[in-house]
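Lecture 7 notes: from sequence to structure.
We start with the chain below.
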Amino acid sequence: MDIHSQKILILDFGSQYTQLIARRVREARVYCEIHPYNAPVSFLRSYSPTGIILSGGPSSVYDKDAPAIDRGIFSLGVPVLGICYGMQLIARLFGGRVARSRKREYGPAVISVSDSGGIFHGLGKTPLKVWMSHGDRVIRLPKGFRVTAKSKNSIAAMKDSKGEIFGVQFHPEVAHTPLGRKIIENFLFKIAKCSPTWTMGSFIESAVSDIRKKVGGGKVVCGISGGVDSSVAAALVHRAVGKNLTCIFVDNGVLRKGEADRVYSTLKKNFRMRIKKVDASARFFKRLKGVTDPERKRKLIGNEFIRVFDEEAKGIKGVGFLAQGTLYPDVIESVSLKGPSATIKSHHNVGGLLKGMRLKLIEPLRELFKDEVRELGRELGMSEELIGRHPFPGPGLAIRIIGEVTPGRCAVLREADAIVLDEIKKSGLYTEMWQAFAVLLPVKTVGVMGDLRTYENVVAVRAVTSVDGMTADWARLPYDVLKNISARVINEVKGVNRVVYDISSKPPSTIEWE
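Predicted structure tokens for the same chain:
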């Protein structure tokens, strides 16, 4: 069966949880995509969705410029689920009334379910714990709708008489709604009649077929950074085109300690594919000289990567394609999904491509989240040594050095970072972390070493736990681990006299500092 024959369309109104909705749908083995709320109905029709989910958002539906959708969406003949703002918008569009709540609901709440069918199938009519996050509420339902659940302060859920349009005021996608996954699955399987066909086995079969169709008898180059994404992309493309793939591993000077040699030898041994190693560190440092803005760093590095690939590819007869490991979160974070929303940051894969680049792009992982990429790698038979590595950004240490990137500053950070990873691995916590790394700050502090006054660098340690990188919490590292990291960095890394620990979650912070 075509893995894209059943698709859920998620329309984004700017909620911080929109990506979580997509994750929950994917976890149920149903394919979905996120698109802007104002996508035209003609596009939605051509997309042929099996069901539509309207996300939450920060706006009020009664604001002058509140984001809205075309009523034509409801004539597509597919079920619709509105979450939070999405429910309020449905109510307003069909003639109901939404107003500011006298008492806002933020955090845990309990709802009483009055309809044990539909999205609440199998959950009974007992009170349910949910997560609320709203300052407005539906105070009058549209004609033809009825209440299916209530909280102490608001209508918590509704549906139309035909059982095709549903709304929930709470957020079923977050972990704080314990039975939220079941509610989403009820919409997918009971209402939209989806089947769980989105598996990595079916994805591989489809992706290999697509790559072969696109490439034909042509040749492909793939940029290898040593991270999970580019390694899995290379393995997938290699399965499709075999010896017509040449991987180019670029040492850009901002890799972790010993990484260039380790990654090259590991990939060569594991895949037996053609890999060419290029030391381009000098030209990267030249491009980064004097640059402090993180967006410029990302785009300059991405740009230079493509230049290197383009130059190296000229020496390979018949090459017409460039494969890279762009992921779905890269696309989401690099593109303003809802018009008024802000781009968080550009990704080198998305924002750094050269205009007029002669190579055609192949992005076989563009539909996947990070945890799906790891699952794909395992399905392809890749070693856990590669699959289990912490994510490492394409711009490398350049975006973990706040301020100008120089060979000297890279050397300091490289040593500190190696100590952080070594101590976390020794503690047995490495596999429990999503990411752990060091950051070199653009400030110096006074210290004392021996009888001498020092004025040296500050290193920040960042360690987070996460499922897919879209949200993350700071890791509660044991004090002894932090003590060992601090002592070793200060004693072993020349030029550092202070270590601090980052205790910020995502959101509101991002995982990387830049």
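Points to note: The chain has a mean pLDDT of 88. The chain has 15 helices and 18 strands.
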